[in-house]
Design a protein that fits this description.
The protein is an alpha/beta fold and 537 residues long. It has helices at residues 16-31, 62-70, 84-93, 97-100, 116-122, 142-149, 178-193, 232-235, 256-264, 273-303, 335-338, 364-371, 386-389, 461-474, 477-499, 503-508, 513-516, 520-532; strands at residues 37-43, 71-78, 126-131, 164-167, 202-207, 227-230, 310-316, 339-340, 342-345, 353-360, 407-411, 420-424, 428-433, 442-445. The structure holds 2-acetamido-2-deoxy-beta-D-glucopyranose (7 copies).
Length: 537
């Protein structure tokens, strides 16, 4: 029986007839068992490695630990695209980024996609979305989209403020990210005032901005978000002595695409160890604040008695490098950026379980359908997590397609000057770029080299080749890369035309203005040259 636990109080054995009746009653209850409610808390920028050893040594995350104690933690969960909008598009549509053409923060899901929440609503669930959603097209700054469109231009400009830290408030200051707290309050009130009285199950989504870094207005009006901000209250949750200072390769030894990322993120200058340690500490403190918001939701479910019939899922759209590999932000296939947290607890779900299968955000969609007992949809990119989560699925006719031993992530947006594809298996991470030939691929053995410091693609060509072959059977990636290049050019041209005479003025004053204004003609010429280049196939 699902959810049955050993170790209850000893009772005398019941007479046989009564036993039979009890069994029949239990079977009837199981058949008509109400479908559980679901609460999905999705943060931003959360490095999944903080949810298990040794990453969890650096900061106290009591509610993530609570979920581990009473539920399941995934040790190898990945984003399907390490940037907000494309990642969320994959999570809500259940489809890989190249299938929905969610190329960058401006190009997410176009209208017409049916989300898992739409389907749950259609099948009788009450639904509620609160906080950061960000999976549809048309949002984010002009700088952000122009940087993505022009990533093939032969220039190198710093676009972001240098990452920095800022301490605010005092030892009792808890609500640093006030807007997230307000959304958390709304979710708590919704649980306590509405959900508690529903006769049908519900699904609640809460999207948090934390632990995404904050804007750095000191770099002018076109600032990016490179300030790691917290209060002493959260900072004291961090164990400074457990913070690992990442090893960096020298600038000249960096992979060329990594160098582009680091440069555009203004991270190629000198950083002291103390500076790096502080950025990491402040980032971890921001994760602790996020954990406390998750805690409010768990507490509200417990206080209302809903916890025993609600499945809680905690995840994030992507990670945060926090100076791993000489970068902050995400947009990278390195662990800090692509590895996400994924924890699930609730009725019937295995407790204190650690799952090491590779999984990714597109798995959320079929899992939601499974939870709500909605027949599986065709053509989804992911696989239900249910078989990995539940104690036992009794009398279940196994109709699911088996989970493959890999996950796919891809990136086509800003701060990376080439479309990037990652195939992650239990042991390996294979990263290839563009057409597969013009940029050297990377191969990491995560079991021997968890910090991804040694690219062994040349040393193990057979492994690299076989992973490349699997990748090509999932996606014709050279073709996808060239269609992104065409899209970028087309979008840029139409944006340029919309500006008319003002083009030179507007482009010079985007987020890269400090560098651009030093040599405006040089950079405009580089763009013209790119616009006149024929597309290389
Ligand atoms: C870290 O996670 C491991 C299991 O992954 C657990 O045994 C340990 O207690 C955790 N430590 C902390 C400080 O949370
Ligand atoms: C890059 O960082 C430097 C400090 O290293 C800072 O002076 C400059 O404003 C930053 N550039 C941009 C574009 O933010
Ligand atoms: C901390 O700051 C708040 C205002 O943000 C103030 O009300 C409180 O008295 C301060 N507490 C201490 C211990 O300084
Ligand atoms: C929920 O139900 C309780 C008890 O039946 C009732 O007191 C309360 O007013 C209801 N709340 C709402 C928002 O309907
Ligand atoms: C990306 O940028 C780096 C740094 O400027 C450069 O070396 C490399 O050739 C570029 N790669 C591509 C594919 O444009
Ligand atoms: C599934 O995808 C294939 C190819 O992408 C398409 O031909 C087919 O119509 C799709 N089926 C459904 C049910 O969407
Ligand atoms: C030109 O662009 C600037 C921003 O760089 C804007 O403030 C101004 O209003 C624009 N002028 C016209 C005529 O569109």
């Amino acid at each position: 029986m699902r959810g049955a636990r050993a170790g209850g109080p000893e009772l005398p054995p019941p007479p046989p007839l009564l036993l039979l009746l009890l069994l029949l009653a239990a079977a009837a209850a199981a058949a008509g068992q109400p479908r559980p409610s679901v609460v999905l808390v999705a943060s931003d920028s959360f490095d999944g490695r903080l949810t298990f050893y040794p990453g969890n040594q650096t900061v106290a995350l009591p509610f993530i630990n609570f979920m581990k104690r009473y539920g399941t933690v995934f040790l190898k969960a990945y984003t399907n695209s390490p940037i907000c909008c494309p990642s969320r598009a994959a999570m809500w549509s259940g489809l890989f980024t190249h299938l929905t053409e969610s190329w960058n923060n401006f190009k997410g899901l176009d209208p017409g996609y049916v989300t898992w929440m739409d389907l749950l609503q259609k099948h009788g669930y009450h639904t509620k979305k609160l906080g950061k959603i960000d999976y549809t097209s048309g949002h984010h700054s002009v700088s952000n989209r122009v940087e993505a469109w022009t990533r093939d231009v032969a220039f190198l400009l710093r676009q972001e403020g240098r990452p920095t830290v800022k301490l605010t408030g005092n030892k009792t200051h808890i609500r640093v990210m006030e807007k997230d707290w307000q959304n958390t309050d709304k979710a708590v009130n919704w649980i306590k005032e509405e959900a508690v009285n529903f006769t049908q199950p519900f699904v609640l989504y809460l999207g948090l901005n934390l632990p995404h870094p904050y804007p750095s207005p000191s770099t002018g009006e076109n600032f990016g978000s490179s300030t790691f901000l917290t209060s002493p209250y959260w900072l004291k949750k961090v164990s400074y002595e457990a913070i690992k200072i990442p090893k960096w390769s020298s600038l000249s030894e960096m992979h060329p695409v990594d160098y582009y990322s680091s440069y555009t993120k203004n991270c190629t200058g000198e950083f002291t160890k103390e500076e790096v340690r502080n950025i990491r500490a402040f980032y971890y403190a921001m994760c602790a604040e996020t954990d406390a918001m998750l805690g409010k939701i768990i507490s509200a479910l417990r206080d209302t008695g809903l916890l025993k019939r609600t499945i809680i899922i905690f995840t994030a759209d992507h990670g945060e490098l926090a100076m791993d590999h000489r970068q902050f932000y995400k947009m990278s296939m390195y662990e800090g950026s692509s590895h996400i947290p994924l924890l699930v607890m609730g009725p019937g779900i295995k407790q204190q379980q650690q799952v090491s299968d590779v999984v990714s955000l597109v798995d959320i969609y079929p899992t939601m359908l499974d939870i709500a007992r909605i027949p599986a949809q065709q053509n989804l990119s992911g696989y239900s997590l249910m078989p990995l989560l539940f104690e036992e699925l009794e009398n279940e006719v196994v109709t699911r397609k088996p989970r493959p031993p890999w996950v796919l992530s891809e990136f086509h947006g800003c701060n990376v000057n080439s479309s990037t594809y990652m195939l992650r298996t239990d042991r390996w991470k294979y990263i290839t770029y563009s057409d597969g030939n013009s940029v050297p691929p990377q191969l990491f053995d995560l079991s021997a080299d968890p910090d991804e410091l040694e690219n062994i693609a040349m040393k193990f060509p057979v492994v690299a080749h076989s992973l490349d072959k699997i990748l090509r059977s999932i996606v014709n990636y050279p073709k996808v890369s060239s269609s992104v290049q065409e899209y970028n050019k087309r979008e840029f041209i139409s944006w340029k035309q919309s500006l008319g005479q003002n083009y030179s003025n507007v482009i010079a004053n985007l987020r890269w203005h400090q560098d651009w204004l030093k040599e405006p003609k040089k950079y405009e010429d580089a763009i013209d040259k790119w616009l006149h280049q024929r597309q290389h196939q």
